[in-house]
Amino acid sequence: MLNAHSFYSLRYGTMPLEHLIQAAAKMGHEALTLTDINNTTGSLDFVRLCRENGIKPVVGAEFRIGDEKLYYAIARNNEGFKEINELITGCNRNKQLYPEKPVLDNCYLVYPYGKRMFETLKENEFIGIGQKNLNKIAFEPRRHLYRMVMENTITHNGKEGYELHKNLLAIDRNILQTQLLPHQISGQEEHLVNPTNLRKTFGSHPELMHNTKRIIDDCSFDFDFTTVKNKKTFTGSDPEDKELLFKLTYEGLEYRYGPHHKEAKERVEKELAIIDVMGFCSYFLITWDLISYAFNKGYYTVGRGSGANSVVAYCLRITNVCPIALNLYFERFLNPKRKSPPDFDIDFSWKERDDVTEYLFKKYGQKHVALLGAMGTFQDRAPLRELGKVFGLPKGEIDNLIAHPNAAINQTKLSKELHAFREFMQDFPNNRTIHAGGILVSEEPISCYTACDFPPKGFLTTQFDMHTAEAIGFEKLDVLSQRGIAHIKDAVNLVKTNKGVELDVHNFPMLMQDEGIKRSIKTAKTIGAFYVESPYMRGLFHKLRCEEFLTLVAASSIIRPGVSKSKMMGTYVYRYNNPDSFTYLHPVMKEQLEETFGVMIYQEDVLKIGHHFGGLDLAEADVLRRTISGKKRSIKHLEEIRDKYFSNCKARGYEDSVTNEVWRQIESFAGFSFCKAHSASYAVQSYQSLYLKAYYPLEFITAVINNFGGFYRTWVYVEEARICGADLQLPYLNKSKHLTHIEGSTIYLGFIHVKSLEEKLVEQIITERDKNGIYLGLSDFIKRVRPSVTQLEILIRTGAFRFTGQTKKQLLWDMYLFMKGERKKPEGKSLFETTIKQFELPELQQDKLEDAYDELELFEFPVSLTRFQMLKTDFRGEVKAKDLLQMVGKKVKMVGNLVTYKFVPTSKGETMSFATFLDDENNFFDTVHFAQILARYPFQGAGVYLVLGKVTEEFGFPSLDVEKFARLEVKGDPRVK
């Protein structure tokens, strides 16, 4: 049997690998061939699943150009699979069409009937004959039969699968299903057939069956899923790797801990022994080398994830948090019982990650490095919307079908059919994309495992995803990017250029003791600071009123989505504020969890309690953590460890009630707990941000504005700059740059913020200014830069020409007159200097409200006026944000500029919202919009709102339960009559 398509033949095949293989096994097939279209995404999963189901796997790929089927290649062996992958990868990299006659010496090639002349076939080439073409064999010479194989293409699983196949094709082409052409659609007979029927169909042509069997028997794909596939050595030999890793680690040990730290030395010895035995010396060295490259280039990095549990990683400067000080267990990262490979998560600036990635490709070779792919899938409502389109439904009907699936009007035969197809399509592969940061560095060429795509950034990307990579034995290296690192580095550079001060934001002991940072956390003055600026986080700071690093680490963990459902956050906040109001379940719980008041916030806490209370060794405790958290879904493993836990507790004489309650808490909290090392790594970065914000707020906010990507929109940071004392200036022709920049306490907004202003013009403005000096006026600018009328009008309306002393209206008049004159000029150089004819204009006044409307259009936020100053009303609320704690339990009217809001589902399936506002004194206040209120008073976009509600308070943090809510009217643009 040849030519089976799985659902990895994107938007064509309809069968998941498991379904395809299990169905084949149930029918009694002994072998199965996977030839997905133009990819080998599922090949190795296919091999593993076939072995599990007692079927011989044969791997290959079908090659097409558009809808035209060229041939399919079947790998005779591992080398053949590599050849297929190299062909796909090469064509993707070079943007070439697949060749009509490929050279694949270790493959069998099967061409469609009529595609090739029999006389031109090589020894490894055949013609495929399917059921539709069987009758044509009678007209072929008998000698041709020996060059034919039976072709039973599998694309779907019967009638329903055939309809789904057509729907997927139509979705792919963005057309109605009825517009599909016959040659684009697979045959209705392209489904799995049992061996008996297959023999009946092809029984009168034994040569075809013989040839097919001979090919399948000759194919042998040998793959070991148990070995590590990463690059085996860094230096070229295992002993040298070990020697180098040990040397670097002990050098780093003295750098981090000094020469006489007994506990650190013992921990290093223990970790190195495990790393060596498990064969991960090269993995640590490759990561160290990457960090060293970044360090030498002056790049900032953050090593996080479970890798930060390793003292060796800390000594190698891969990570920057001390596992000993934080009581972090190495077994969380690596232990002999951990079957899945570990990985390091390294964050770089979003501006520098591509360079770091390129370094890896250059150092280890293009054939041995690839970005890790990912699979985008059909999720939630998306399939229904796509299906509605291919069935020709109007957008309104599709929206109604999605919003009200159970309404009577949506119970038609068609709507039920669409919902049925939607269920089929849930989690179906939709497109191949790129993992957030995973990179593979392999010992053997990547083509031994997969074909690669070639996305726009120009780095080869595996066609399989992280789950397959892990299953076949890869440890990925996560080279991630974030904007938080960039704004820290940029702020440090701005402080140096603007203040002449060189900062060391990597002096972590100094940061931990800094009073300015402590004050910022305690008062929740964290706007712009990495990971701690969201309304939810600032609200938590108000409730905790904390100053310590460890409390920030805990807060960073319990803030995550899903935690509130586990009641972990509420329990922690209550116990933090009332440390004498609860009793620890057992002395061991106090001993191990006193830092978090008995709450298992961290994944490491499960290890601690499983080990110290439940008597499990640390490796077993980590298996428990992974099993309960869903990382490893083996019921058998969980039952074995559960039995051992209860047996150990009984032997230790614990009361059954205590044993059961601790187990309940493990089960309850483990699914929501967070990696402490990860959280601590982020907290260090938060400290760096907070230090800069506390002492160099203007440089810091400028850096935040320039890196975008913060929690809030740009206008919030612009407003924060004003609050921090900046003299804020709109883009200015003789000063401004592409990005926002600072001179003293003056911040000039960059041209990048002006909508519709062309980047090419901005570059021209700056280059000409740097070369020939400042612009003297409008006519000088026009002569030197020659902008279009549209672009020049944008510049005038931003206020970029305010140095001329003329109003915008005067400048616009001059622009049109001058540009009109420019168009009438004869070509060629004039012998005489021309002058602009001067016209006497009436005085043209400029209103600040007009400026504000220009800014709303061009920047999406006003600068010349605040949104409060644009209101028709002078009412600014009965109370201000700073007074809310004195108004608890009372109804109040407040006026606030909407900063952000978030919709959340309720337990009843309704939608409620949380929002944050700024009052006219630039203080934040938060609101709660319950489902009924939100339905009656929805948000109406950006602007200032009148809010009526009841003040509530939780642990000293006030908020407003909204009862009525409306956006206030603004004064109109004076130019619009």
Mean pLDDT: 92
Q: Strand sequence of the main sheet, in spatial order?
A: 1-2-3-4-5-6
**How many E strands?**
21
Uncertain spans:
none
Query: Structural class of the helices, strands and pairings?
Result: alpha/beta
Radius of gyration: 34 Å
Write the layout of secondary structure elements.
Layout: H1 17-27, E1 31-37, H2 43-52, E2 56-65, E3 68-75, H3 78-94, E4 107-112, E5 125-129, H4 142-145, E6 148-150, H5 159-173, H6 195-202, H7 206-218, H8 238-257, H9 262-277, H10 281-296, E7 301-304, H11 311-315, E8 345-349, H12 353-364, E9 369-377, H13 382-390, H14 395-403, H15 413-425, E10 429-441, E11 452-453, E12 461-462, H16 466-472, E13 477-482, H17 483-499, H18 508-513, H19 515-522, H20 535-544, H21 549-558, H22 568-577, H23 587-593, H24 603-613, H25 618-628, H26 635-651, H27 656-670, H28 676-695, H29 697-707, H30 714-723, E14 727-729, E15 741-743, E16 746-748, H31 759-772, H32 778-785, H33 789-798, H34 808-824, H35 848-859, E17 891-905, E18 911-918, E19 924-929, H36 931-936, E20 944-954, E21 957-967
Parallel strand pairs: 1-2, 4-5, 5-6, 8-13, 14-16, 19-21
Antiparallel strand pairs: 2-3, 3-4, 7-8, 9-10, 10-13, 11-12, 15-16, 17-18, 17-20, 18-19, 20-21
